[in-house]
């Protein structure tokens, strides 16, 4: 039986791991939300690993407020870089394998074909830069690491694009949504499943991997699909990012190439709309 520590357990991905845990009877879980383990506190992290037996650590904790990070740089660094260093050191010290989740925002979006793991990184904002720096900390400190970059996470838990669209549909009948940012929506439960499959396989194929659902969409396509599946008659207007300025710049194209993760772990990845139907039916 492998013991898996889930940090940031009350976040969206952490809750998705908990929701599918029964499919993995070979694993036992220790869920640590920020209240139980603040990963930015080095002493707390060291003590936690000394007092608990852990085989794998899945870091679901992050500073994920992309726009706020532009003006809250120190806090973003604290969680996305320094705290990852704390976990990397503690996992190395205790011979724990670490899975760390990162983002498509490490890329600048100037490609026109799906990004492979070794594509040049060039984050456009503080969030992407801190996530990239966190990846580097982990990769330098603990060789037993899996860095999984993902994109556009949504689920029935916490705040995310799908839930925001459905909430807005309760008191509006028309919405403007950007159509010039292209990527792939990813159901966080599918990602959770991929992470637990890696652990179940007891893999030592360490390195960087890309995981999203299959297919390609703009935020406009994503919104349209949410309302179609939910049988909601919302009028959705496509707009350019320039008409919807945000503090953080986002990549225009961030589709991830998933060949490596599929081959290495023999994974089948669902098409994004199929997963969206499941997520909406689970609401
Ligand atoms: N959401 C997306 O669209 C997306 C896209 C690409 C990649 N990712 C990556 O995917 C991963 C999971 O994202 P998510 O959507 O599940 O994020 P989330 O819902 O924002 O969850 C992040 C969790 O981390 C916790 N946390 C923050 N600082 C902490 C600390 N110092 N110690 C312990 N816990 C702390 C947060 O707790 P509080 O609630 O108390 O702050 C929150 O529960 C992250 O690494 C993110 O960068 C997300």
Q: Main traits of this protein?
A:
single chain; 283 residues; Rossmann fold; six-stranded parallel beta sheet; two-stranded parallel sheet; globular; binds NADP nicotinamide-adenine-dinucleotide phosphate
Write up what this structure looks like.
By secondary structure, the protein is of the alpha/beta class. The chain has a single domain, classed as NAD(P)-binding Rossmann-like Domain (Rossmann fold, 3-Layer(aba) Sandwich). Helix content is 37%, strand content 18%. It has nine helices and twelve strands. The strands form four sheets. The protein has a six-stranded parallel β-sheet, with helices on both faces. The protein has a two-stranded parallel ribbon with strand order 6-9. β1, α1 and β2 form a beta-alpha-beta unit. The two termini are 32 Å apart. The site of NADP nicotinamide-adenine-dinucleotide phosphate has 24 residues, from α1, α3 and β4.
Total discrete domains: 1
Mean pLDDT: 97
Proper CATH architecture: 3-Layer(aba) Sandwich
Would you count the extended β strands for me?
12
What is the CATH T-level topology? Answer: Rossmann fold
Q: CATH homologous superfamily, by name?
A: NAD(P)-binding Rossmann-like Domain
What is the overall shape? globular
In terms of DSSP E residues, the strand content is 15-25%
Rg, Cα atoms, Å = 18 Å
Q: H/E series, N to C?
A: EHEHEHEHEEHEEEHEEHEHH
Tally of DSSP helical segments: 9
